[in-house]
Amino acid sequence: MQFQVPQFIETEDKIIGPLTLRQFIYLGVTGLAAFGLFFVLQTWLWLLVVIVLGSLSASLAFISVNGRPMSVFLLNFAGFIWSPRVFVLEEEITAKVLAAPRATVSVPRPVAAPTPRAIPEPRAVGGGLKDLWNKLLTTKTAIPKREKPLPEHPNVSQKNLMDRYEIVRSATGEREMAKRIDY
User: Fold this and answer.
1) Cα distance between residue 70 and residue 65, in whole Å
2) Could you tell me the pTM of the whole model?
């Protein structure tokens, strides 16, 4: 058995001529308001009000911002303007009342200014081996009780040492001693 799958589910149905129901309601309410105001206001004031209301209803009916109707855009804009953008966490402290042994009272904690503190480094998952590997890769000094420092050889002269090692500048600008290899 075959079923027909709807293809254009995001487009609104054209109900009244070339207008959707939403567009027709916006324009129809504005037209009725303009008709009613014609008998109440003077002609020059009525003309100004009709121009403002007509442009507002036309923008609500026909303009879309990022694929969303203008009404949704205006509601989100108003919500952004009037909603608070600073969120304060108020922890609640529960204090036990002495008269009733199981009753608790919720007292809001006074909000204090946050104190600056150092952010701890993320701890490596996997325990000591990853920590040791990270230290081995990032430090120049020997780790106590794990590595032995390079032994000092009394029979190696300074000239012989400089023939085997060379001071180089790394990409970060630090001076490091590297083993010289001649191919």
Assistant:
1) 6
2) 0.43
CA atoms within 13 A on the CB side of 55: 5
Average pLDDT over residues 32-43: 95
Q: What angle separates helix 43-62 from helix 70-82, to the nearest 10 degrees?
A: 100
107 DSSP β-pair partners: 93
- Who has greater pLDDT, 67 or 119? 67
Between CA 36 and CA 29 the distance in angstroms is 11
pLDDT tens by residue, 50-59: 999 999 999 9
- For residue 163 the two structure tokens come to 């023939």
> What are the b/e assignments for 121-157, b being 16+ CB within 10 Å?
eeeeeeeeeeeeeeeeeeeeeeeeeeeeeeeeeeeee
Give the tens place of pLDDT for each residue, 61-85: 999 888 888 999 999 999 989 887 7
Is there a contact between 69 and 77 (Cβ–Cβ < 8 Å)? no
Q: Is 123 helix (H, G, I), strand (E, B) or coil?
A: coil
Nearest alpha-carbon partner for 37 in 48, 26, 24: 48
Spell out the residues 6+ positions from residue 53 whose beta carbon is closer than 8 angstroms to its own: 30, 33, 34
